[in-house]
Amino acid sequence: MQTSAGNRFAGLDHLRALAIIIVFFYHYNLFGHPPGLYEYAGSWGWTGVDLFFVLSGYLIGGQLFAKLSRDQPINYGEFYFKRSLRILPAYFAVLLLYFTIPAFTERSQLPPLWRFLTFTQNFGLDLSKTGAFSHAWSLCIEEQFYLFLPLLIIGLTMIKAGKKAVWIIPGLFLFGFLIRGYIWFDILATPQQTDFGKTYYRLIYYPTWSRLDGLLAGVALAAFYYFKPAAWQRITKKGNLLLVIALGLVAGAWFLTHGDHQYEMQGAIFGYPAIAIAYGALVLAALSPTSLLSLYSSQVTRWIANLSYAVYLTHKQFIHLTHDVLRPYGIGDNTYTCFWISLVVALLGGWLLHVIVERPFLRLRDRLLSKRPRAENNLASALNSR
Question: pTM to 2 decimals?
Answer without folding.
Answer: 0.92
